[in-house]
Amino acid sequence: MHSSSSSSSSVPLVLPRAQHVAFLRQYVDREVTELPRTFELWFTEHKKISAAYWTITALALLGRLDVVPRERLVDWVLRCQHPCGGFGGDYTQDPHLLYTLSAVQTLYLLGEEKRLDKDSVLRYVASLQQADGSFAGDVWGEIDTRFCFCAALTLALVGYPLRCDDDCLSIGVNTDQRQMVRIQALVDYVMQCENDDGGFGVIPGAESHAGQVFCCVGTLALCGALSGLRDRGDRLARWLAHRQLRNGGFNGRPDKLPDVCYSWWVLASLKIIGKEHWIDGDALERFIFACHARAEHGNEYVGGVADRPGDEPDVFHTFFGLAGLSLLGRHELIPIDPIFALPQGTVQGTRTRHPYEIPSSTESTAANGSPSQSSE
Ligand code: GRG
Questions:
Q1: Are residues 198 and 136 in the same domain?
Q2: Are 37 and 45 in contact (CB under 8 A)?
Q3: 261 CB within 6 A, ligand 1
Q4: Residue 205 to residue 195: CA distance in whole angstroms
Q5: Closest C-alpha to ligand 1, atom 18
């Protein structure tokens, strides 16, 4: 398979649903427990459970969850849980918040959350909160705003309303094992990661990056704390809008190349703060289609999406490309929730219990400085 290196606007903007399903099925049709020690299939073994989440969520957006070998997948996911409550990226791997979130998302997507030992998950998440409100990814203590989001979304999915007015959540059925999650401290920590340019970084003082922005904005939204953003989010929206390049794609920070995955990190962030109209959605759509893998000579799509035009497709970029198109409202795709990164229908119940507010689109426009496209 080879994809054309052209990103010309002549690519047909017709979603190759059948080809995408065939591309994704290559992964789910395998025996998941036998899987693949090969790089090109699941990237690396330690993150196999995230690859499973990307693959089946992409299939769900295409309306084809029926092709997933449900029982086999659920058994394997549950086997990845450790006695501490956290999940590893495979059953041979150590537990980590990144893979705990992917496991919980996968079980919710498959409607199998009842098989989850929620209390042990809650205790695991709570055990990783630090004195300053941040979260470590695992027992080794790396700090990164990604882990704040993984913790917040995992807690939300397993049923904890994360409101600042609750201040402390008391977690655990057995009183002797009670642990606390300090929500206000989490919000305060995330706000320390806000930069003068309106973006957020990996730790306080670190360069703004679109991936970290998504994690911070998602965490604030889950905690009902979006109102703390500078200039009602306008400064952040301006920084995000400037991620759009002349070819319609987004980069993750200034002077970097575009990558189709930022279609999600940037657009979902804008959607969460109600400013998705600050970017050129048609140009982004054309860029995502230009990243679709194509047969060597011609415009025929072969299934899968790459990071940028001409590169090889993989499940990570296929998921984020389709998720971006879903956020843009493509009618062939099931609508995705910009915070939970799951089909809206899957999280409806959770959202009803904990109605995280997404502001409706605001009236702010390009007159506020956005979106003037930066050079490629
Ligand atoms: C459930 C959607 C979802 C997310 C879970 C893991 C996670 C929480 C969020 C990851 C956010 C993040 C940091 C995304 C960026 C990924 C990426 C392409 C990083 C590449 O960074 P660099 O510095 O590349 O290598 P650039 O593009 O800056 O050159």
A1: yes
A2: yes
A3: yes
A4: 7
A5: 261
Could you tell me the pTM of the whole model?
A: 0.90
Whether residues 213 and 274 fall in one domain = no
User: 88 pairs with which residues across the strands?
Assistant: 95
Cβ of residue 322 lying under 6 Å from some atom of ligand 1:
no
Structure confidence by residue, pLDDT tens digits, 113-141: 999 998 899 889 999 999 999 999 999 99
In a domain, 216, yes or no: yes
| Residue with more model confidence, 181 or 34 | 181
For residues 36 and 354, what is the distance between their CA atoms, to the nearest angstrom? Answer: 38
Is 70 exceeded by the pLDDT of residue 354?
no
- What's the CA angle centered on 159, arms 333 and 110, to 5 degrees? 40
Helical segments of the chain, H only: 17-28, 39-42, 48-61, 70-79, 97-109, 118-127, 145-157, 183-192, 210-222, 234-241, 262-272, 281-290, 315-327, 344-353
Q: Which residues of 323-351 are buried (b: 16+ CB within 10 A; e: fewer)?
A: bbbbbbebeebbebbbbbbbbeebbeebb
Beta bridge partners of 180: 170
Give the range of the structural domain holding residue 192, as residue numbers without chain letter: 117-164+177-229
Domains in the chain, number: 2
Among protein residues, the one whose CA lies closest to atom 25 of ligand 1? 252
